[in-house]
Amino acid sequence: MSISSLMPVGDSTSSSRPRVGGAIVRKAKLQDAVNIFDLVNSLSGDGTLLPRNYAEICENVRDFAIAESESGVFLGCGALHLYGPHLAEVRSIVVKPEAKGQGSGGKLLQALLEEAEYQGVASVCLFTRIPDFFFQFGFRVVDRTVLPDKIYKDCQMCPRLYACDEVAMVRGPLPRTAVLGPSKISEPELVKLQTGTIPSGY
Ligand SMILES: CC(C)(COP(=O)(O)OP(=O)(O)OC[C@H]1O[C@@H](n2cnc3c(N)ncnc32)[C@H](O)[C@@H]1OP(=O)(O)O)[C@@H](O)C(=O)NCCC(=O)NCCS
């Protein structure tokens, strides 16, 4: 079942909505973009999340699910980016500090995985510093070179390119093709993992 079918926007009384710890997960609306922007960027300074600008969030707001309290208080968000039938990516998944540990993050992730399934995408990837959270949802650590689309979308422009401390994870089969770069890239062209100085200002 997809986010769309589980969480109809504007139907605040739907009893079909999944609830965990009082939280409701639904598709994001454009009006949620400010909350998404503020929360995601509150954790981008230290590299926990990639920074997202407001225009980009508005443009891609249909990628997002949000968690909110029964009274409509914004608790967190997560996005599923579709590269194509071969690969999707969980991005910008975050819960407000005061709402952590109450099931919202797990429910958001589950909704994004159901959306991937609805879209017919078996392979879902992400980069993270907290693999333990994702292990329990079926993700495993992989070599990042198997994800050229992700590398070309984000890493090549990232100031942490040569000092990345995130691990790549995949749920489902490894993607067998890519749309943003060559389908096979040699290791040296990709993210060199080495300890180094993170450029100032990031
Ligand atoms: C990661 C995050 C979204 C989890 O949200 P949450 O609402 O606290 O998670 P939940 O309450 O749904 O927890 C679900 C399960 O994951 C576990 N878990 C939560 N955070 C975890 C973490 N950082 N590491 C390992 N396990 C974690 C919980 O213990 C729980 O396990 P249980 O079901 O056995 O009790 C939240 O901690 C967060 O916003 N972190 C900062 C942003 C971030 O790092 N995002 C990931 C970027 S890739």
CATH topology: Aminopeptidase
* Main sheet summary: 8 strands, mixed
In which range does the helix fraction lie? 10-25%
Distance between the termini: 39 Å
Query: What overall geometry do the principal axes of the alpha carbons give?
Result: globular
Spell out the helices and strands N to C: HEEHHEEEHEHEHE
Q: Using DSSP, what is the number of strands?
A: 8
Overall CATH class: Alpha Beta
Relative strand content: 15-25%
Number of helices: 6
**Fourth-tier CATH superfamily name:** Gcn5-related N-acetyltransferase (GNAT)
| Rg over C-alpha atoms, rounded to the nearest angstrom | 17 Å
**Total domains:** 1
Q: Biggest sheet, strands in spatial order?
A: 1-2-3-4-5-6-8-7
CATH architecture: 3-Layer(aba) Sandwich
Low-pLDDT ranges: 4-20, 188-202
Q: Which ligands are bound?
A: coenzyme A
Mean pLDDT: 84
Q: Structural class from helices and strands?
A: alpha+beta
Give a structural overview.
With 202 residues, the protein is of the alpha+beta class. 23% of the residues lie in helices and 22% in strands. The chain has six helices and eight strands, in the order αββααβββαβαβαβ. Bound molecules: coenzyme A (COA).
Quick tags:
202 residues; alpha+beta; Aminopeptidase; eight-stranded mixed sheet; 6 helices; 22% strand; globular; disordered C terminus; binds coenzyme A
Secondary structure blueprint with pairings:
Elements: H1 3-6, E1 19-20, E2 23-27, H2 33-42, H3 54-59, E3 64-68, E4 74-84, E5 87-95, H4 104-118, E6 124-128, H5 131-135, E7 140-142, H6 148-153, E8 167-171
Parallel strand pairs: 5-6
Antiparallel strand pairs: 1-2, 2-3, 3-4, 4-5, 6-8, 7-8
This protein binds coenzyme A.
Residues 43, 48-49, 93-95, 100-106, 126, 128, 130, 132-133 line the site of coenzyme A (COA).
